[in-house]
Amino acid sequence: MLKKLTVVVAILVALVITGCINTTENGAGPTTGAKIDQPVKIQTEDFVVYRIPKNGTEILVPEKVKHTLGDKTKYEVALSALINTEPTEKTLQNLFPPGTALLGVKVENSLATADFNKAFAKKREGSYEEFMMVNSIVMTLTEFPEVKRVQILVEGKKVTTLNGHMDLIDPLTRNKTLLK
Questions:
Q1: Between β-strands 61-68 and 149-154, what pairing exists: parallel, antiparallel or unpaired?
Q2: How far apart are CA 79 and CA 77, in angstroms?
Q3: Which residue among 13, 37, 105, 178 is least packed, with the fewest CB closer than 10 Å?
Q4: What whole-number distance in Å separates Cα of residue 146 and Cα of residue 142?
């Protein structure tokens, strides 16, 4: 009896070694032919976002960032990178208030509509911060050739201004005079 059991075990071991019996990674049963050792490909893309200098100069500095696309549009990913990542250069800064969140971006007929939460519209120090932050959004979105104008919304609604310094009722266009 022991000889028969040893022979059966030896045959099973030989079958497993030669690949006649496929099991999942945890040994729980047959696989469907998928390779376990294939890495998952994560799609990333390079974007140009526009940063603000710490010294208060009224220029915008382009910065290339690599960001994961996931289930968001390229416009949402570019603005999320602008809002949520710190500049790589020490001379640049991020002016977005803490808690700022992008609710979505829609692009239709060359108009990008960027919707932000209420934290985005929090009171700032002055006109410079509002002007530069808004223009960093416009410049980042108009980097995409299909976007010519940008409408900024807060909680899905048009706003006349964020802090009384800049008119946001109408869509904004790229301001090339701000480029470094």
A1: unpaired
A2: 6
A3: 37
A4: 8
d(CA 143, CA 61): 13
Structure-model confidence comparison of residues 2 and 59, the more confident one: 59
Q: How many domains does the chain have?
A: 1
**Does residue 31 lie within any of the structural domains?**
no
Q: Is residue 9 part of a domain?
A: no
- Residue 68 amino acid letter: T
Residue 94 has pLDDT above 60, yes or no: yes
Residue 7 has pLDDT above 70, yes or no: no
Residue 59's nearest CA partner among 98, 31, 93 is 93
d(CA 84, CA 68): 13
Q: Is residue 80 part of a domain?
A: yes
Considering the domain boundaries, does residue 10 fall inside one?
Answer: no
pLDDT in tens, 46-66: 899 999 999 989 999 999 988
DSSP state at residue 57: -
Helix (H) or strand (E) holding 82: helix 74-84
Question: pLDDT by residue (tens digit) across 108-153?
Answer: 999 999 999 999 988 666 788 889 999 999 999 999 999 999 999 9
In whole numbers, what is the pLDDT of the chain averaged over residues?
82
Would strands 149-154 and 111-116 be described as parallel, antiparallel, or unpaired? parallel
